[in-house]
Fold each of these.
Amino acid sequence: MIVMMAVPCTAASAEKGDLHFDFRLPASLGWWTPVNEDWHGIMSGVGGIRAGIELFPLTQNKVSNERGFRPSLRLLAGYRFGIGEPDTYSARLHTVGIDCSFLLRYNFTRQHHGFMGVGALWQMDILDYNSKYRGRKRETWRGTALSLCMGYELALNDRLWAFAELGFAHIVGGGLFDTFMPVIGLSWGL
């Protein structure tokens, strides 16, 4: 007969490194541009801001010192602003979005990490513009997108990371357009 018992966590096992979740709070600024030819001549991307939370799965080490892969799940909310090209018409574009991505990091060293990610993005675009014959108009679009990213991360200390990232969003539904967005940011570990 086999008897199984659950062993409670003790101070001795805590010193060896219990399994726990790691959290980070990333925030970033970026510039963006439409990729589609139809929108590229009409809109200029000006800037964007994003903030959110990143969750690392169960690990034994608070700081990952080993070379190798480390997965995470990131949820970001963001805002982007764009303006119409002066040669076409006066327009202002406001975009809000929520991006949920699975990231896979490769730790080159304790300080240097590369990462790639894939996820789903929901966004809403609000375009205010001057129509030639109807005056001021507003159009609103909502849609989903496939988001891809890749980047580099530098550990400044045990709780603060600086990163540079290239992001791409390919629209799956709605009247929106694909975008490319390079960003820089900081991520703070809890």
Amino acid sequence: MDGSSAVRVGCAYFPIRIPYIYGIKTKAGHAVLVQTPNACGAEIIKRIPADFMPLILWADKADDLEFLTAYTSDAGYQHPSAHLKLRSVTIVPASVGEYEAWTRSAPRNIVVRGKDPFEADASSTDWRYIRVAPGQDPGTAKYGSIGCYGLVRYPIPDSIKDDVRANWPADRPRF
């Protein structure tokens, strides 16, 4: 012992994303939400590709986040029905002071605890009810957190197009 009274204390570092999803209301009453990338730590930030695309969601009504359109590719932004354009994405580290300044000046996050459309804990779900038809099971009127489903469209390689066409059902359904 060197005679000093200093005590060394270990500290665990648990990075978290706050908020994990952030949404704003547009002037027209729509909503734009972004899932905060899991980019805690300078080393992770360095590994993010230049063409990184965050998950961005659109809602027609900011006060009703039950139906969202996810923008997951360049094609989504270029589609004639797209509501959004992605101009750029920048991820930079922020100090505690920068984060606190942002929280004071940023628009209010419309995704708040208790109204979170992705809340998976049914014990705290604010259950919603829809009208059911006469004779329909009334239990089908109750629903809770939103499930998230998606679709990825892959082009068929030229090398197998003939095989795919040969196996396409005679009624030519559109998949």
